[in-house]
Amino acid sequence: MSAKILRLNKAGTPIKWINYEQAASLYVKNQVLWTLGDSFTHLHGGICRMTQEQSVIALHPIVATEGRISKYQSFAVALTNDALFQRDQSMCLYCGNIYNSKILTRDHVIPKGQGGKDIWENVVSACFACNNKKGCRTPEQAKMKLLAVPFRPNRFEMLVLSNKRILGDQMDYIKNLSPNFRIA
């Protein structure tokens, strides 16, 4: 697995992680406005028949790109199973085992049948076995211990959780954006 590049909008707000190919496309289309950090790899292209020189693109860990900036851009993280499993680090929060996302389910701590809501603060990752054992009961009613308190992640936490190989320049940039951001 290779390192990813942190893509920012022109105001410096992180948008998403991109791979080398996506970054190269942005460079070639002259959509990269500015970069941060020292280049960490080079992509080599073809040989120009007129100059006999090989094309080279130096990739930087952080790139700011063209694009519209919406003042209504959502800072909330959508609750999806993929995002939930990333937040919980692919762990069943009842048995503590790590699972492939195909084995995990979304469990409502306070079941919907008891008035629980489908919100970040009420859902956890659970394996099929633990979810079935708990059923339509709270962890206390099912005599099952919850290993962590569910929380609503902010977009900076989700950026970190969604990339397992964050470079130092990238982590420093993300930490500086959110003064209350802590990494365990």
Describe, in plain words, how this protein is organized in 3D:
With 184 residues, this protein is α+β, with helices and mostly antiparallel strands. 22% of the residues lie in helices and 22% in strands. It has five helices and eight strands; from the N terminus they run ββαββββαββααα. It has helices at 20-28, 81-87, 128-134, 155-161, 168-177; strands at residues 5-8, 14-18, 32-36, 41-47, 54-59, 62-65, 104-108, 123-127. A four-stranded mixed β-sheet has the order 2-1-6-3. A two-stranded antiparallel sheet has the order 4-5. The protein has a two-stranded antiparallel ribbon with strand order 7-8. The chain is elongated. The mean pLDDT is 89.
